[in-house]
Amino acid sequence: MGQPESREHHESAQPELPPGQRLQRGWPVTHYGPVPKFKPDRWEFRIFGATADGDKHCWNHEQFSALPFSTVEADLHCVTKFSMLGAEWGGVLARTLVELAPPAPGVTHVMVWAEYGFSANLRLADFTSERTIFATHKGGELLTAEHGFPLRLVVPHLYAWKGPKWVRGVEYMTADRRGFWEERGYHNVGDPWREQRYSYQEEPGDGPEL
After folding, report:
1. Which residues pair with 74 in a beta bridge?
2. What is the pLDDT of residues 149-180, one digit of tens each?
């Protein structure tokens, strides 16, 4: 299911910071654009694209909130060079959604879509990591709007821009294509342990085929 992530368990095996990162006390607010206003009666989460059954799968906010709740303890590494260690994230595992709405056999990547058309592309193996989670809570408390309420993706082994705030859906893809920040010069993979910050650092195989 796609290419395996290179250092998924590095954080637990070696608790030191990735290269170029600094320890952050607290949780800074970083995002592009305005904070969207949450309207629960209009909110919908979709999985679409190359699904196994060819259909689009949708959950309203009440239905999504009723999905199995899990917790993950994981670090958050921002490309702006701060790292927040040992946070507890609560929400729905990406694997749970993949089980409910399986991808077609040829799917290699996903595009995670958020408010205002924001997007982030991921290898399917990164998306289905056991610690990738659609978070609704941090430290047992609901996320604030500034930090992504009602839903943000957390992909602990990649830089935090790969986990958008205010997520609204996932597109299954049979070929890779760049998301919002990847189109604007950020690395297509984003492994903090390899310090993959910018597209000029990409090696053959890191980005979409031209």
Report:
1. 87
2. 999 999 999 999 999 999 999 999 999 999 99
Sequence-distant (6+) residues with CB within 8 A of 45 are: 58, 59, 64, 151, 167, 168, 169
Q: With beta carbons less than 8 A apart as the criterion, state whether 103 and 172 touch.
A: yes
What are 72-106's pLDDT values in tens digits?
999 999 999 989 999 999 999 999 999 999 999 99
Peptide bond into 150 cis (omega under 30): yes
pTM for the whole structure = 0.89
